Amino acid sequence: MKRMEEDLMKDLGPGHIVDAVRRVRKDVGIKITNAVLTPGHERFLIHGDIWSVSVKLVRIAHYSLNLCFTRRANNMLFDSSNRCQMIDWQFTASGSVFLDFGTLCYLSMPPSVTAEYHDRLIATYHERFVEVCHSLGVTELPWKNRMHFEREAKTEALFVTFLWVGVSYELVDPYPALKERVLWVLKESLKLTPEAFA
User: Are the CB atoms for 46 and 102 separated by under 8 Å?
Assistant: First the structure.
């Protein structure tokens, strides 16, 4: 997270954004534990690394939500018929669904696209998540309905995604478009959950 702080200081200069990152960096382990692992936060089997800079998973209007490259990706390998043959599960864990949602929604597309399709992304993710849970016999979920899920997705997913990127920022550094997305996540999270940065 120190690298993120240094980059922001270089790009933005001193100010409330750099100060917020500095405050979180001092207690990042505690922040991650509180945001993802503490009792009271529902935990599910998550991928833990479900983002990429470019490939088709879901088609929304004229924009492809990215998860992998045409044949070989960060996290998936497809055959010539575009059927997934292998998934990289190296970061799979018991954790917050909002980490997977956040990295997929906020890091895999430009902020303008995320903003335009945010509600649809939440609705689709929630619908599929509920379908899969019900197919596996999990009928009691922590969210009463999509609106409850959406409220948490708009706050928790942003902050958890910021934490995840913050501790693995070296992976972001070579990609200017991804750095733009990270800055958007940080600003939105700071706006919606300023108390998380205390």
Answer: no
